[in-house]
Each structure stands twice: as C-alpha cells, then as structure tokens.
C-alpha cells in the first residue's frame, strides 16, 4: 500500500460526476541519440545551482542528465497520446489516452518497452480520502515544538543563527492545502522563499487546493509562528512538489516521485524530503514484496539513489508499518545512500507505528530516528495539533540537515550524512527499530568542523546529555596533548580528577565509564586544556 506516512484521519466527500476513463502508460526509450543538448553546455538543461552542486562535490555530468530525445517523445504524442511527465534518468515518458487501442500503434524501433499503469476516472474529485496517511528565538517562541528540536540538540545550531539559510529543500508530497493562506508560512512567502511549485499528478502549478499532508510536513521545517511553532529550518527555501495522488494507490506514483526528484535536481535543490512510502497497491499485480526492499529493485528506490548520486541529500520516512503485517520499511526508505527516518515519541521512546529494518539485503534501517510521535504540526486555522507518523520525523531531520549543511557548505552530501549517523546515540550498536538512533546535531557539527576553524566553543561536546556511564565526550586539542578533567557534585565538592593524553589537531573521544561508581544526579565537568578552562553541567542517569 502506498501511504502518506502519518496517522491522522480525515473526513471525505464524494461528488457524483459523469465518468471519463483514461489509460496511463510508461514508455521507455532505447537511447538518447541525436540529442539537441550538449554535455559540455549543461546550462542548457540544468540550473546554475545544479551545476554548482555537481562541481563542488566532484560529480560528473553524464548522458543520464541529458533530456530525452524530443523527436521520440513527439512521435508518441503524434499518435494521439498526451505526455504527462518525462524522465531523463529513466529515459522515458508517462503518457495517457482515452483510447486504450492506441497503445498497439507504439511500434517504433526506439521504444524499449511499454508498461501499463491502469485506468483512471478523469473527473474524479480531488478527495481527501479517509486513510492511514503516513532571527534569535527564545524557547517560548517555539511553542510545544521546541521538544522535537531539542532532542536532536538542534537549538545549538539555531543559537548560532544556523537555520537553513541559503539551502533549498524540495518537498515531495500529496499537496499543501491552504499553505499560502497561513500565518505559519507568511514569512516564507513574504521573503520569496517558496521558490515555486508543480503538480506532477495534474500537470499544473497549483498545489494549495490538494491534500493537507504536505502542509503539515512543511510546517515541521519552515513554519515560523512565534509562540505556536517554529520549524527546524525556518530560514531555508522550498520547492513544493506534488507527486502523490491521494485518490489512488498505484505504481505510477513512484514514477511521479522520479520526475519530482529530477525536477528538484534541475532547479538546484540541496535536500529532498519525502514523507511517502510504497509497498502494496490497489492492483495487486503491482505489489512489492519484502525481498524487493533491497535498495535496487523498486523504481522509487532506484530514483532515490540516483538523486543522491547527483549530490542531493534525500530524507525519507521509514514508514508506519511497525505494527502491521508488513512490519518493515517501505520504498524508497530502503535506498542505500539516503537518510531513512524512523520515529520516537516526545520522551524519545520508540513509537509503536514506526517501521522496522533491516533491508532485505541486511543493511541497517531506519538510518536514524526523530520525533514522530505526538509531533507538533501547524493547522490551517493558524493553530497546532499533534500528529503521529514518520511523515513528521523525516522533515524534522531534513530541516536540521539544512542547518548543518549551511554550517559546512563545502562538505559533500555523503560527508553530511555520515556525520549525522556518527553523531547518533546508537551508531556503535544499531538495531532494527531505532537504527543508529537519535542524532546529535551539535556533535555532527563538531565532527564536520575542520580543526583550524574550531573556536573555544568547539573544544568539547558531550554526547548525549543526560549521560550514562557509556557516554562520551569529544575533545579537540589544538596544540597540546595533555588534558585534566575534574568532576564536581552539585554542591561544588570535587569528587574525582583525571589526566588524559590527547592527539593534537583532532577530535578525541573519551569514554565516561569512570562515572559508573557515582550516583545518578547532576555533576559539573571542569576541563583544563592548553591554558583554558571549560565547565559543563551533565546529568548522569542509569
């Protein structure tokens, strides 16, 4: 089943209309011979941002990036088909017709294959089906949404004014109902940071009359309504792309996703958030199986991997099948070069609905987790509500990823992803429910910081805090290899002291196992390093 990956239920309306049936197909071409475009002149088919992204990360522009042969597409159109979407990466087109017999006329030698998606009622209303849908700020400004930021240590980046500025996030979803009318997004629109929109289902610009799912997803990243909700990347820019049809569950939506990802690449997006997942469909012959969840079988997972190879970071919901018979992640969460995000609740406990890993080929999934249980999202009446689903944990991570990449613009997409994974609290012992665990973006920032650029505030980070005896501190030693640490209780009494030998010009990991003999409570760690002294309060728990 393809699902919006959140668990809110909506009423639905049915309108009586005369049916008009259309038939939809995917046509794959054999080659891109005689292209009107030149790989040496990529500005003809890629934006400057897309070109710069490739140059900055050492990614070659390939034949795969060339648009499809226009003569091939026109030849299909001349038979009487309407061309809905085009794909450079898959070298094919999506077509529709009212006459199912026309497909028999597709006999061109440049046609590799034709796949039939099914039939559609063209006059079907755009229903919201009842289904399982998967500035300096003070703490008060965030409202109840502060928790979903703080559990990732995201406030440390926001306090440094790292809120996603200069980063572009493409949101692939089912619609963004009334987002253009809401207070939470007024600043985005006023500052021109909604860069545009496109509906790959209906082939139009309008996305604000469709499903509200994407609006709520967007709010976890881009909302700024002080006292109610502030998202994880309120200064980022966004493309709003509708690839999901809420009326159907059909494999065609994976191809819509493909075209949306290509569009995101072409316009220069840095990050894709996709709170969507695909497993089974209305037509059982199109169903995936768990064995398909290997990152290289389903169309949408292949597309997600291609998007990553173009230098973007794809962040995708793990899925909401944890308590269902499917149980496992869906596609494209199984893709190997993306962040697949599971869910915890507001207390950082595993959320009962979150899908499990591993992938069919044994890789760790979900990659990481964030708050998806009782998540604060914006509503069209300018308030907030709590929602459940990996639909919300994914964009929370996507927004924080934009902030982290803003801090380290010269890093590649995979360097950013790897730092996020290494910062997560279970990365040394991942499991099938939480994956690598909750990331710590303050630590990820430290891990990405070049030694020569580190300041006093970068000298050490404690992960996580509250701590256990299995936690670590990361200490950067600039010009010395000697460190002294003193531990004080809350009354100010020194209870222990230690000397450590460090490696200069690198981040040193120090295990806090020596705290095991101490009772739970609040302690102060005083670090003396190279003539400087730093004090950090920690909370020791079981």
Mean of residue pLDDT values: 89
Q: Span between N and C termini?
A: 41 Å
Largest sheet: 7 strands, parallel
Q: Roughly how many Å is the radius of gyration? A: 25 Å
Count of separate DSSP helical elements: 11
From the helix content, strand content and strand pairing, which structural class follows?
alpha/beta
**Regions with little confidence, pLDDT below 50 for 5+ residues:** 8-18, 124-135
> What does the overall shape look like?
elongated
Number of extended strands: 24
Predict the CATH topology of the largest domain: Rossmann fold
Strand order of the largest sheet: 7-10-6-11-13-14-15
Query: Which percent bin holds the helix content?
Result: 10-25%
CATH architecture of the largest domain: 3-Layer(aba) Sandwich
Beta-strand content: 15-25%
CATH homologous superfamily heading of the largest domain:
Peptidase S8/S53 domain
Number of domains: 3
The CATH first-level class of the largest domain comes to Alpha Beta
């Amino acid at each position: 089943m393809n699902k919006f990956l959140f668990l809110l239920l909506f009423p639905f309306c049915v309108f009586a209309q005369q049916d008009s049936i259309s038939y939809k197909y995917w046509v794959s071409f054999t080659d891109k011979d005689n292209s009107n475009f030149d790989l040496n002149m990529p500005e003809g088919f890629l934006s400057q941002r897309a070109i710069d992204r490739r140059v900055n990360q050492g990614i070659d522009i390939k034949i795969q990036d060339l648009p499809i042969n226009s003569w091939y597409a026109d030849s299909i159109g001349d038979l009487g088909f309407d061309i809905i979407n085009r794909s450079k990466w898959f070298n094919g087109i999506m077509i529709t017709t009212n006459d199912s017999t026309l497909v028999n006329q597709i006999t061109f030698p440049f046609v590799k294959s034709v796949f039939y998606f099914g039939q559609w009622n063209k006059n079907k209303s755009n229903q919201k089906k009842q289904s399982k849908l998967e500035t300096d700020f003070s703490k008060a400004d965030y409202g109840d949404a502060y928790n979903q930021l703080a559990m990732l240590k995201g406030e440390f980046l926001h306090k440094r004014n790292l809120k996603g500025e200069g980063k572009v996030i493409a949101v692939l979803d089912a619609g963004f109902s009334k987002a253009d009318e809401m207070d939470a997004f007024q600043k985005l629109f006023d500052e021109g940071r909604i860069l545009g929109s496109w509906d790959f289902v209906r082939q139009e610009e309008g996305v604000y009359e469709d499903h509200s799912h994407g609006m709520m997803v967007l709010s976890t990243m881009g909302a700024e309504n002080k006292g109610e909700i502030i998202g994880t990347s309120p200064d980022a820019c966004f493309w709003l792309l509708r690839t999901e049809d809420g009326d159907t569950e059909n494999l065609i939506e994976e191809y819509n996703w493909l075209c949306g990802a290509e569009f995101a690449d072409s316009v220069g997006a840095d990050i894709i958030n996709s709170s969507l997942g695909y497993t089974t469909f209305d037509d059982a012959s199109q169903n995936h199986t768990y064995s398909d969840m290997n990152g290289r079988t389903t169309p949408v997972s292949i597309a997600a991997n291609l998007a990553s190879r173009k230098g973007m970071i794809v962040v995708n919901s793990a899925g909401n099948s944890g308590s269902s018979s499917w149980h496992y992640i869906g596609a494209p969460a199984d893709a190997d070069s993306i962040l697949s995000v599971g869910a915890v609740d507001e207390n950082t406990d595993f959320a009962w609905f979150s899908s499990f890993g591993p992938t069919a080929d044994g890789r760790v999934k979900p990659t990481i987790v964030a708050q998806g249980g009782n998540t604060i999202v914006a509503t069209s009446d300018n308030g907030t509500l709590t929602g459940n689903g990996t639909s919300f944990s994914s964009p929370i991570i996507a927004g924080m990823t934009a902030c982290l990449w803003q801090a380290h613009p010269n890093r590649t997409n995979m360097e950013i992803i790897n730092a996020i994974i290494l910062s997560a609290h279970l990365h040394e012992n991942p499991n099938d429910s939480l994956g690598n665990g909750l990331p710590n973006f303050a630590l990820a920032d430290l891990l990405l910081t070049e030694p020569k650029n580190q300041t006093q505030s970068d000298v050490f980070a404690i992960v996580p805090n509250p701590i256990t005896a299995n936690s670590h501190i990361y200490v950067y030693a600039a010009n010395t290899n000697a460190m002294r640490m003193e531990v004080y209780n809350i009354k100010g009494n020194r209870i222990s002291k230690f000397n450590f030998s460090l490696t200069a010009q690198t981040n040193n990991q120090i295990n806090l196992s020596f705290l095991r003999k101490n009772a739970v409570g609040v302690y102060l760690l005083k670090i003396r390093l190279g003539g400087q002294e730093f004090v950090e309060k920690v909370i020791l728990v079981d």
